[in-house]
Amino acid sequence: MKLWLALRLARVLVHLVAGLATCALLFPLASKGARERLTRRWSRKLLGICRVTVEQVEVAPALEHALVVANHVSWLDIFVINALHPCRFVAKAEIRSWPVLGWLAAGAGTIFIARGNRRELRHIFKGIVTVLAQGQRVGLFPEGTTSKQGEVLPFHANLFEAAIDAKVAVQPFALAYLDGAGRFHPSIDYVGDTTFVDSMFAILRGPPVRARLSSLAPIDATGAHRRELAEQTQTAVAQALVSDS
């Protein structure tokens, strides 16, 4: 391993350990606002170490209280969103087993969901409604897995019901990772047989990344059906990504 790559990896690991300490020691005592500031600052530093800069495109202002729904490209997605608009995330249970990042996500309050477990899904659904009712922002990747850049897989509708029950809007976010020429970045795709470690090394070895986060127009959930919300949100995200390609 080249020295510069080893040093960059060491910086990431040290920062991850610092994040674990923050979650264990500071989060239990911190107010909601303080937790958001800590999350935003920590996420920005992690992205900086990975040479990822974040660019915000405001098609509509990001709401302070909403069900945030985004396309899922990379393990970076959570940190890109948190660098600008910290959320309590719903994520697949597999993330919990990721080295260090899984522990960190758990400590930051991520809600993990196991595929195909209907009993757990009902329990988590109630938890999401409760968090939304408390005035917090919840983030969700309804594709259920990562997709190739520029593509959007069908959005699963089940958890959109939480926005209806909590009487909050659904706000789509569109994520794109670009290179210096404005094309989709070749080091970011996290699909197929790519492992978390493979992805981490590809990003650390590759050229700088520009992460573009577009906050799109909120969708009113009042009186809506979850399938309608899922379809409208998927269409909005897909259309936003076309403009990035």
UniProtKB/TrEMBL annotation:
Ranges annotated as spanning the membrane: 12-31
EC number(s) reported in the record: 2.3.1.51
InterPro entries: AGP_acyltrans (IPR004552), Plipid/glycerol_acylTrfase (IPR002123)
Top-level enzyme category: transferase
SMART domains (alphabetical): PlsC (SM00563)
Pfam families: Acyltransferase
Residue intervals of the Phospholipid/glycerol acyltransferase domain: 66-178
Domain remarks: The HXXXXD motif is essential for acyltransferase activity and may constitute the binding site for the phosphate moiety of the glycerol-3-phosphate.
Annotated protein name in UniProt: 1-acyl-sn-glycerol-3-phosphate acyltransferase
Organism: Massilia phyllostachyos
